[in-house]
Design goal:
This protein is about 75% helix and about 5% strand. The protein is mostly helical and about 100 residues long. Helix 1 packs parallel to helix 3, helix 2 packs antiparallel against helix 3 and helix 2 runs parallel beside helix 4.
Length: about 100
């Protein structure tokens, strides 16, 4: 039987891998500048994934929590640019 802490870690890793796959798909299709509406939609999607990651925290030990949100936002900034990342940061900060 898988313990609760290990299951939380597996959920976080699965979410981050899925996001990395989506980033690869989005970045692979990028041709020049993207419309502002598409960048806003990307930010909203990344923000929703960030909130989901925050709802499933992985606690290694009391007081030691793996913060997958910072990994998610870092990857978003690297692949998608500043507009989607700022939107996602605002959503996760508001949550």
């Amino acid at each position: 039987m898988i313990s609760g802490h290990l299951l939380d870690l597996i959920n976080n890793v699965a979410l981050l891998l899925a996001v990395a796959f989506l980033f690869d798909l989005i970045a692979g299709r990028r041709q020049g500048k993207q419309p502002l509406l598409r960048r806003i939609a990307q930010g909203l999607i990344i923000g929703a994934i960030g909130i989901t990651v925050m709802l499933i925290p992985w606690t290694f030990a009391p007081g030691i929590v793996f913060d997958a949100r910072s990994v998610l936002l870092g990857i978003a900034g690297l692949f998608l640019g500043w507009i989607p990342t700022v939107i996602a940061m605002g959503m996760t900060a508001a949550f």
